[in-house]
Specification:
By secondary structure, the protein is an alpha+beta fold. Helices cover 47% and strands 24% of the residues. The protein folds into two domains: 81 residues, no CATH class; 103 residues, no CATH class. The strands form three sheets. The protein has a five-stranded antiparallel beta sheet with strand order 2-1-3-4-5, covered by helices on one side. The chain has a two-stranded antiparallel sheet with strand order 6-7. The N and C termini lie far apart (76 Å).
């Protein structure tokens, strides 16, 4: 039995509201809208499903999650199949231990100042989740603000980027641009 029938699920995405009446509709909503921004699915005004992109983060009912996962997984696989067949500028590579990712063949320009700054906060939030799970409290800084250890957050981020590069993702950073400019200047001077 589809547990959605017993719920009052409403999906929210960037000002749009949609009543969701089946698990298939919920999976479609996550697949179609999760690629473009944050979505929330509420049950009677309370958060019920909070995905990160097209992936589930929190689901209020474990039984519902168990019903949704196989359907959503098939829809996620369709996205990757479409990427593989529609885009010749991408390829599938191994990532980590038994995971595959679809990456662009060309460089990804990460040279814009602050390109990864927001993601550092996400890395720190991951550290805070570990703290919470272990009963560790982060004290405020001397100004009474939430303390953030950017060194640890940056280390996590650097490790992720390193593994992406090991998998073949071509990231272009500021230093790459400086090296290119210096090489071009050297070629001009030698002419």
């Amino acid at each position: 039995m589809d547990l959605t029938e017993k719920l009052n699920l409403v999906g929210y995405v960037e000002g749009e509201i949609k009543q969701l009446k089946s698990i298939d509709e919920v999976a479609d909503f996550i697949r179609q809208n999760g690629k473009h921004g944050d979505i929330t699915i509420m049950n009677n005004g309370e958060p019920f499903i909070t995905p990160i992109g097209i992936y589930l983060d929190k689901v209020a009912d474990i039984r519902y999650r168990a019903q949704l996962m196989p359907i959503l997984t098939k829809k996620q696989e369709q996205i990757f199949t479409e990427l593989d067949s529609d885009d010749e500028d991408r390829r599938t590579v191994e990532f980590g231990d038994g995971c595959q990712i679809v990456i662009p063949n060309g460089e990804i320009d990460c040279s814009r100042l602050g390109y990864f700054d927001e993601l550092e906060y996400d890395c720190w939030n991951l550290v805070k989740q570990y703290f919470a799970e272990l009963g560790i409290e982060v004290l405020p800084d001397e100004d009474g603000e939430e303390a953030i250890d950017f060194y640890i957050a940056k280390e996590i981020q650097d490790r992720i980027l390193e593994e992406l590069q090991n998998a073949g993702v071509k990231l272009k950073f500021d230093e790459d641009i400086e090296e290119t400019e210096q090489a071009e200047e050297g070629n001009i001077q030698s002419m």
